[in-house]
Write a structure and sequence with these properties.
This protein has helices at residues 2-9, 14-36, 45-65, 70-76. By secondary structure, it is mostly helical.
């Protein structure tokens, strides 16, 4: 879910967020196969979990070194409101 939010808000590179989204989709798909009884739990999970693990490690490194995109934060900041309340005249 946070990969999607980071992708939509453009707080980190879109390619990084897409890696997280694809990795999460693989893990979710495998979980659904296990729940439906098609796959055995633990048989292929490690391989399918590698993209999301790689994404989380890269994301931590990215946030420690570069942080969030300041241009995306500036776009989301509230605008100055000169007269927030209508006049009662």
């Amino acid at each position: 879910m946070y990969s999607y939010l980071l992708f939509k808000s453009k707080l980190n590179p879109p390619s990084l967020a897409l890696l997280g989204l694809s990795g999460a989709a693989l893990v979710l798909g495998y979980a659904l196969l296990v729940i439906s009884g098609v796959a055995v739990q633990g048989s292929g999970f490690t391989v399918l979990a590698l993209p999301i693990a790689l994404y989380e490690m890269i994301l931590v490194g990215w946030l420690v070194t570069k942080g969030f995109s300041s241009s995306a934060i500036a776009l989301e900041s509230p605008k100055a409101v000169t007269n927030p309340l209508p006049s009662m005249a």
